[in-house]
């Protein structure tokens, strides 16, 4: 399977015109997979303003996003057009405080107290 | 060879890990998307190897994906990786 040009263009525009984008299965309000749910849950809890893209709604995007980042799994988080990681990496970065730093460096607003609470509960 | 064995073999060959644990976690996803009868759909891999030194998180994951190969990765529904040196 290869990506259609349309899908690639669409993905490129989406990740470049939104500061934070999560490609996921389902929506941020109703995730359809445990791994997507975990990352959306972290971002929701931290009060991050992000765009969610449901890959289950479009097969071209579902395949296209894997080719775009050369990454075989969903969810995928993008900040300022850059691929950050999937569920394992985002979980690790949340607990280590690296995600806070990444948001600060990129001017993304988030609730520091909420992030600290996640770390306290999982420390 | 089962998928578990294939994953183990490829990771041992590629990284000579000091510690390697490949767990079939499919049962805890029974009834969820991607579950296959007989398991071997959801895996948890814990790997510790010197080969991951000086590599970013993304580079570590990419190295594991590459060692497993596209075909095996596409057969697995979910792969959770815990990678460190």
Automatic annotation (TrEMBL), chain A:
Identify the keywords attached in UniProt to this record, alphabetized: 2Fe-2S, Iron, Iron-sulfur, Metal-binding, Redox-active center
Q: CDD domains from the entry? A: GRX_PICOT_like
Provide the coiled-coil residue spans. Answer: none
Q: Which residues bind [2Fe-2S] cluster?
A: 33
Q: Which PROSITE patterns match?
A: GLUTAREDOXIN_2 (PS51354)
Which stretch is the leader sequence?
none
The UniProt record lists the Glutaredoxin domain at 20-84
Q: Which GO terms describe its molecular function?
A: 2 iron, 2 sulfur cluster binding; disulfide oxidoreductase activity; metal ion binding
**Family per similarity comment:** Belongs to the glutaredoxin family. Monothiol subfamily.
| The name this protein goes by in its record | Glutaredoxin
TrEMBL record, chain B:
Q: Which family does it belong to?
A: Belongs to the BolA/IbaG family.
Q: Which domain of life is it from?
A: Bacteria
Q: Which residues form the signal peptide?
A: none
Tell me the Gene Ontology biological-process terms attached to this UniProt entry: iron-sulfur cluster assembly
| Protein known as | BolA protein family transcriptional regulator
């Amino acid at each position: 399977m290869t990506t259609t040009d349309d899908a690639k263009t669409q993905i490129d525009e989406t990740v470049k015109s939104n500061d934070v984008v999560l490609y996921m299965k389902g929506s941020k309000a109703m995730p359809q997979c445990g791994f997507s749910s975990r990352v959306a849950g972290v971002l929701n809890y931290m009060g991050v303003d992000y765009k969610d893209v449901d890959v289950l709604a479009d097969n071209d995007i579902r395949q296209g996003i894997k080719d775009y980042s050369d990454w075989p799994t969903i969810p995928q988080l993008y900040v300022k057009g850059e691929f950050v990681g999937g569920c394992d990496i985002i979980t690790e970065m949340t607990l280590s405080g690296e995600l806070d730093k990444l948001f600060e460096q990129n001017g993304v607003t988030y609730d520091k107290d909420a992030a600290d609470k996640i770390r306290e509960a999982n420390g | 060879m089962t998928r578990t064995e294939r994953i183990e073999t490829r990771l041992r060959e590629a990284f000579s890990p000091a510690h390697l644990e490949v767990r079939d976690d499919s049962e805890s996803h029974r009834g969820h998307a991607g579950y296959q009868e007989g398991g071997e759909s959801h895996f948890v891999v814990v790997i510790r190897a010197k080969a991951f030194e000086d590599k970013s998180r993304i580079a570590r994951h990419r190295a594991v994906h590459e060692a497993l190969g596209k075909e095996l990765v596409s057969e697995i529904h979910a792969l959770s990786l815990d990678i460190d040196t």
